[in-house]
Amino acid sequence: MIVWLIVIEKIYHEVPMTTLRQLRFLVALSETLNFSRAAELCHVTQPTLSSGIKELEDQLGVPLAERSKQAVMMTALGTEIVRRARVVLNDVADIETLAQSHAGKVRGDLRLGAIPTIGPFLVPRALPLLRQRWPDQHIFLREELTETLIDGLLEGRLDLILIALPHPVGTIETELLFEDGYQLATPHGHILAEDADVTGAKLADAKLLLLEKGHCLQRHALQAYSDMGAPAGDAFAATSLPTLMSMVEEGLGITLLPQLAVDAGIARGHALALTPLPGACPRRVVLAWRATSPHADRFREIAALFRQARATLHD
Question: pLDDT-derived band of residue 195, with 50, 70 and 90 as boundaries?
C-alpha cells in the first residue's frame, strides 16, 4: 500500500497542472486580444505571458488563440474556456475575500456598476456615506446597460450593480432600495402639461420620446401604464435623458423622467413643464450581487446607505 501511494504521488506531481496564473493570462488575452496589453494587465512581461499561454495550450492539447502579425483571435473552444476560467477565478476571489472578512479585513476595492438612469443621480450622494463607513475602501464605478452589468457581475468583473426591475436577473441576489415613479416632461403650454388625469392612452396619442433600445428605462416607460400601447408616429430614440429633455424643449415631443433624476435636479435650467404621474407603475431600483459572494452582509449595509442617500434627494 505504501509503495502504491508513493507511485501515485509521484505521478500526480509529474502531471502538468493548469494554474490560476495561466487562467488569468488567458482571460487577460481574451479581453485585450493583444499580448502586450494583456501582459500589462497581468503585470508581467510579454514573453512571460506568451509562455504561460503556450504552456496552457500544450497541457490541454488544443489551441486557444489564433495568432497572426495583425491580430489575435480566440478560438471557439478558447472562448468557452475563458468563460469557465472567469467562474473559477471568481470563486477563488470569493474564497480569499471570505477569509479576509473573517479576519476582520475589508478588501480595498469595490467594483460598482450602475445603469445610466440611476448611477449619476444616486451614487454621488451615497459616496460620502460609503467613505465614512469604510474609509479604506476604494470604489470604482462602471456605467453600463443592464445586460452588460449582469454579465459583468456573473463573470466577477463587478462586485455590485445598481439596476432597475422588472428585468430578468437569473440567480443573482437583489435587495430593493426604493420604487421610482415618473414625471411627465412636456413643453410649456402642452395639452398634457399639469393634466391631473394623465393616462396611458393619452401618452400613446402624443409623440412620446424614449431612450434607445437597450436602456431598460425604455421598456419601463412603455410599461408605466397598462393601456399605453405603442407610441404614435415615429418614436425618437435618444442615448441619454439630457438629450430627451433637449428634444422636448424644441417641441418635438414629450417624455417620462424618473423621479430619482428629477429629485437630483436633472430638469433645472430646462424650459420644461413637469407633471407628476401618481398612476404610473414605478420601476424598482435594486442593489444586486452574486449569490455566492461572501460579502452579503456588507452589501446589505451598503444598500441601507443607498436608501439613506435617496432620502436626501429632493428637487
Answer: confident
289 Cβ contact partners less than 8 Å away, ≥ 6 residues apart: 153, 159, 160, 161, 172, 173, 295, 296, 299
pLDDT of residue 4: 47
Angle at 72 between CA 66 and CA 74, to 5 degrees: 55
User: Could you give the CA distance from residue 166 to residue 179 in angstroms, rounded to a whole number?
Assistant: 11
Position of cell 418614436? 235
Query: Residue 288: CB partners within 8 Å, gap ≥ 6?
Result: 150, 153, 160, 161, 162, 163, 169, 172, 173, 174, 175
Query: How many whole angstroms separate alpha carbon 47 and alpha carbon 271?
Result: 59
CA 140 vs CA 93, 112, 123, 155, 186: distances in Å: 17, 6, 11, 17, 36
Split at pLDDT 50, 70, 90, the class of 205 is confident
Residue 11, pLDDT score: 43
- Bridge partners (DSSP) listed for residue 73: 66
- 82 burial (CB, 10 Å; 0-12 / 13-18 / 19+) is buried
All structural domains of the chain, each given as residue ranges with its CATH number in brackets, are 2-88 (1.10.10.10), 106-179+284-311 (3.40.190.10), 182-281 (3.40.190.10)
pTM of the complete model: 0.71
